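## retry 2 of 3
previous attempt timed out at serialization; input unchanged, resubmitting
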Amino acid sequence: MSLIIKTQANGIHQHETKAIAKIREAFSVEDEMRKNSPWYGYAGYTLVDKTTKKEGEFDLILVTNSIIIVVELKDWNGKSIKSANGNWYMDDRDMGISPVSLTRQKQFILVNKLKALKDKFTGNPGFVPRVYFFVVMCGKVNFSGLPEDEANHVISIDKFIKFANKIAFNKEFKPHPNAQHLDKDFGLIDKIFITKDTPPKKVIVQKYKQEEELLAHPQKIYTEYEATSTISRSDKALIRQWHFANFKEMSLQSSKQRAALLNHERIISAEFQQSNQLYKTALVPLIMPEEDQITEQYNELVEYRQNHLRFNDFITTINPNLSEEDKLDLIQILVSKFAEMHKLGISHGDINSHCIWISPQKDVAISHFLTSNSENIDNQIGDLQSSLTFLPRDFQVKLANVSAFKKDVYMLAIAAWHLWESNRLTPKALSNLCINSDHWIADLVKKAIAFEINDASQLLREFNAKRPTQIVEFIADVALLEEYVTADKIYKIYPEEDEIYEDEDNKTTLYRSGDHLVKEWSDVHLDRFSSSDILKYQHFFERLKEATAQNLSYLPNLVRYGISTKSRSLFVVFDVVDGVKVDEIEAEKESRLQLAANLVEAIIHLHKLGLPIGRINHDSVLFNSENSSFVFNDIIDIRPYLDHKSEYYPAHIENPTSEQCHNYAIMYMVCQILRFKIGDDSTDFKWVSDAVKLELNETEFPLGDLNRLLESIETTQINSDTPTIRIPVPEKFTELEIFADNKRIYAALEKGRNGNDIMVKLQGIGGSIHFILDPNIKSIRFVTGVRESDVVPHYVIDQAVLEIDINLNIEHSIGRPDYTELSDFLFNLNEFSTAIDDVLQDQFNDQEEILELNTDFPQSTDVLDIDQQLLTHDSQNTSVTDEFVNKIALDTIHSDINKATALSINTNKLWKAILETETEALPYIVLSQPLQLVDTKIYIARYEDDNDVLDKFPKDALISLIHKTIDFNGEDREFRVGDIDIQNSLAGELRIKGVKHADKIKVGQVLYLRTKADKSSFLKRKNALEQILRRQSDIPNLVDYFEPASQIIPKNYDITVSDKDFERYDQKDEDEKVVVSLNDLQREAFRKLINFGPVSILQGPPGTGKTEFIAAFVHYLFEKQNANNVLMVSQSHEAVNTAAERIRKHAQRLDTPLEIVRFSNRENAVSTNLKDVYSDSIISTHRNLFLTEMEERVLSLSQSIGVDKKYLACALFLKVNLFGHLSRMLVSAESEDEKLLSKTEWNGLSVKLIERLKDYSQELYSSLIGLNSRQILDRENQIWEILDETFEVHGKAANNAKALIQIAFDYDQLIDSPNANYETYLSKTRQFICGTCVGIGHHSIDIANQTFDWVIIDEAARSISSELAIAMQSAKRVLLVGDHKQLPPLYSPEHANALARKLGFSKNRIEANLKSDFERLFTSPYGQAVQGKLLVQYRMAPAIGEMVSACFYDNELKTGVIEPFDKPYQEDMVRVVPNIYFNSSVQELRSTVAWVDTSEKYSDGVGTTFYNKHEARKIMALLEKIHSDEQLLKELKDRSKPNEPPIGIICMYGEQKRYLRKQFNSRSWNEEFRSLVKIDTVDSYQGKENRIIILSITRNSSDNKIGFMNMPNRINVALSRAMDRLVIFGASRLWDMPRHKESPLGLVLSYIMERTNDEQRYQYIADQKVTPTKNSKLLKPKYKTNSNRGGNHE
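## retry succeeded, writing output
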């Protein structure tokens, strides 16, 4: 019988067909083995192992009557194959991982599939068929040199087909007699392969794996696929799969001609090396084909840029958002690419949608040079090129006799027209081409398709000539100063009483007039002002206005300022202030230090503010020692003031800037305040005098800023800071000294065995002391131990509840030990007393634990079993029941979680602690041995751990090893030990490169691992927060607004917003009916937020339309408030994109010009509708436009500098294309990392470039013939002289020309440089700037040195202080948007514990103390005065919304949704819940809210997390019901948006998410249903919504504790994601306990149970085996089990 081979569609590749045909023929010969049944084969199938998720792509699986054979086919031709380091090499060419290893993995996958069917085999019951594998070599190559373990599995095809004979087969495989009935199970085995979920086999080329199809040639001669690197998912290429059998030309059956075809693109692309622009533009093959390897079906690897879209894809997705100017820019860039090609004498030959690639940044790439021709190259495939084109046949005929360049121009113009019209370029579009427009570009296209344009260079010139240029000459109008101009004579209104000084040189006078000081600058003639003068004075007045608005304490009250036309003067009038001068200050050290710090902070802020500053000297600052305040009574000056003779002048700096002068003067005054001479040592403030000397000795940029000086003033000396306590101990204990480890003694506390005793352990460097204290009398009872230790182990740090800055001197006592000194010290620390209270509270909670019954019950893990045992016991022993009831009463009072109140923590202190402890949240190792040098560059750091610390990082991560220490100022500091070589490191052994200070790293020290990205993020946040804490932000006292008790009086901006203003944001449908409008509560919030500040706060509960609100608010700021710039940031890219798109729509709809820039370090994070305003897109456009226009711009200046255009053109070619390009390409040739170009190729590059000189100067060309690239660069000066002689240009004209060319060249170099500062330019010039909280802080954007009229931070309640700081530091006004009743900021457990130790509160108080800054502000007296609330939600069905409102929002949240239940309704502008559930076959969905009880079984614990199999089974059963309801599925699908599944399963624990996903993926759902369901954790769900939410509460542990589920935030988020239906799966017996009734889920359960009589809205579905008792609608018994399942997990 025949061998029957089943082939999966597209699974088998053409070069394998011959081999498979040969095998089929051999195994179809009649033989006794195939007498009863044919054998089967499966070709081209992919199988996936469900456990490991690994894929196996099978060329052929042969199922015989007794065994199964896996066949890997290799059609390789060469001399020999060798194996080394796991790879195979054919003739020294790396062929990748050993096929034997890969096929062995496939064997493993197939065996696992067969094992799953073990009990179903009938031929040999209970046994799995044996599986063999072979790599079958079909080509001509010697593989005899392979090692034995591989050679045993490699065989030639001729030998393999001999297995078709029974004798050969039995000799090789020796099948067991009982196994020779596999034919009975062919149908069973068939099911492994014949399923809908079996994907086709994918090829791998050079470690790139085939993905989805991208393009098929119209003649089917090749197909292109996207391909992903098997090493890195971010690395992409394109696989072009050739089908040479489909060529009509017989010559393609020759491997030589095939090689010529494949090499043609490489030959053409080599010509592009002459042009830097084209070198980066062309997408070309990545590997050189070898003639003997090019089979009938051949896979070619081609360059592919993931961020580029093919022409038609770009037209569909990006082009519709482009303005006309954007489209013209893009057309110009596109044409310029082909113009450059034509300049090199190269035509493309097939310009069409397939070969043009465009990125959202308007970067153009070109591919498919198979049809190209070059004037300099002999074309060997000319007769094949007509078959390769994508042009329809009729167009090929039409263009048959047209020159190559004109043909390109023809198609290029058509492509440009389709870009302009936003139409896809298809064969149909070509056939129906109609250019019916009076726009100038239409005329140009018509001219091109009439063959009146010779090449793309001419097309570009004519395009540039026709494109209108808007030359705008900016002329400032004096009207800009109108509000500041007066006709008053200043000296009459403010008559002079006492002249303080008159500066004739500066034409400035300062005098006193009553209670005012008047400063006047004479000779100011308004009628003579130039534009620059107007702008200068406008800037001066705006800065004064801004300073006045900030109400800065150190500036005198400004009474009036302006320009007097009568006095012809500029004037400033301010109040007289009292105070003493710097040498009259009488204050203590601490006060003087505070004064110095405040003075430095003030000048830093004034510089940031941009206030024009003049003299700073002995007389210009007045001090008040009592409150450490001061006032600059004469600092404002519009004209530069430099007094070279003043002691406050920095004479050591040559030509200092104004800012350097100011900084020196302030530093000089700091020294005066602290009473030491500048440059000398100070006895009292040595650390400050050292810092001053450091600044004086700075040479690179002296006195650039005073931040270092300020940091020094604010720190204290470490040695004087840490007290030493003497502890007397009995002689049985060792005497020792314990020093603070980085100013930290770690204190661990736990309850003692007797009464209220507390056991305390203090440990630092040197050892530890253990003692018992009595908290009632606040004294130490006795010491229990003293132990020596050189280091503090990390587990000690983890166990500590407190950090204390103290040194301990433990000495033997004389007589009875007296611990009073230590006791008094500890109990005087508030943090220590708080920690004691928390330990006592825990002890009380344990004693009152209601479930610790003294009755013994049989062990069981089943809730129902224990329930029955408890009820039985109750009936026999009434005393237990009484005790049980009594303990329930106690439990109502005391929860198992100590609801500790928040401590009063100063915001300044909290923010500093957050930064200082962040490193401790990083993964770490504890060094177990000294760093070992293994060679000159590599150290090994060994650690002991069962887990590999590197498992937490991706394999390509850049990781540094960090050590934390403390600096001489007592501040936390860290230094980089070195960088980890992740590829060569092992578990327990890190290899470290670039190690510094190895001698400082000791055994037992903790070393942290941090990626480069983490460090970048940390530094951004750290710098921003420090700026705010130093009061250098634009709102100087910004930190004060976040104090929980802040009673700052808000500023009233007195802005009127009318109802007509609001109506502009109404959205209407096609019938002009308003469908979206700001409701009354939104309008009330809008008016309040815009009027009160400068820091405002908006609470936006779920579904209340905060994005729509933000969009209207931002638009109003630009249109009505004339905001110069607004910065908007958020935690997530998704939130940024959504808000920015809405704002943009308002601007477009209301014709409001708005320049936007969207910053991101990842393009794929930017939504499609914002791609055109993505920062990289704007920058790329600018770069490309400059390159296209550079020559034209330079040549346009020829007349003005007095030289001929031809000379200038030739000079530009020499500088940019000859010298510049050769120098640039030399870098590539000398690169060690990747040889983009060989030295030989580079040296010969000059030949082609010199050839192009013919077009500029025949004489110059002749003089350079024969020179190689090296000689060209060496003779650059001589060549310039030849140029000047040739064109007879000398002297000034030649110098001017070369200077101009140099400028163009420098700009050309800079434009590709990271130092170009484009991002800074965009952030300073665009109106609306948006990005993520951390991303916007990138140094290239330079947010810190800018000022924004408004900063809006969305999702602010989820941000930690340092993330908020990045944006807030630069704000004049701040709006925080969020909801503190949803997810809080995310601190890792390690970070939270470190914060608790740092701030002195116990772990029980972590949640209470680490509230969001949003909440601290919102609940403060100030916050209540400036807050807005959005209190109408449009997401949740009424039953869900009302429950969420009652349980989490004090019934404030109103519902803008109706669920009519088939009843008529009249409301407008509400969401209507579709009536698709009530008649559903799914019981759980018939009510809006359902609680499905899962009390029957306990949850399972894994580490600190949980999963619940019982709950998972019930959820899967619900999904089965939904899957079976076809009508419901159809309705859900019809109402779903793309990529927004209608069904969401939210898990409260990560382990439950993993378990549910595993269960879901193992079911045989169809792909359509899979796409309708999303499974995730609650922490990933904020901001998202689904029509149906299924909530898996998960936790039902035997100890009846609820851990973090006592926090309402996460529960609120989980419930409020539901739009139409909410199904809660949870153990109601747990949440109905008296101790948990007031917990969030206890309240939710009670709410539902009280309303179950309303069956349309609420229902409760009991667990099948759990019967409610007469005393409760739920389970009555509350108990504890001895089971270990679940454990005690918090």
